[in-house]
Amino acid sequence: MKRIPFDRDARTLYPWETTHLLKEAGFQQVLPPRFLFYFPSQLRVLRFAEPWLTRLPLGAQSYAVAIKLSDAR
Q: Is 27:66 a contact under the CB 8 Å cutoff?
């Protein structure tokens, strides 16, 4: 994040923080956090396995999928 200009002021969030912030903002989590980018460039031959590792909380980045709950009925 330090090397990318638009990420310089970004703050790293733990997956549990992301879940908490989504719920506070009125979202309903659809999927548990998923993790990405396990292998550095020196081990790029192993990247074929990354799609099977997304639930293992060791990747360099994570994401969560959520939907906004509607207030209007």
A: yes
Q: How far apart are CA 66 and CA 33, in angstroms?
A: 10
pLDDT digits (tens, 9 = 90+) for 5-49: 888 888 888 999 999 999 999 999 888 899 999 999 999 999 999
**CA 4 – CA 24 distance, rounded (Å):** 29
Start-to-end CA distance of the chain, whole Å, equals 41
What is the number of structural domains in the chain? 1
Let me know if residue 49 belongs to a domain: yes
Name the one residue in this structure whose structure tokens are 């989590």.
29
Enter the pTM of the model: 0.73
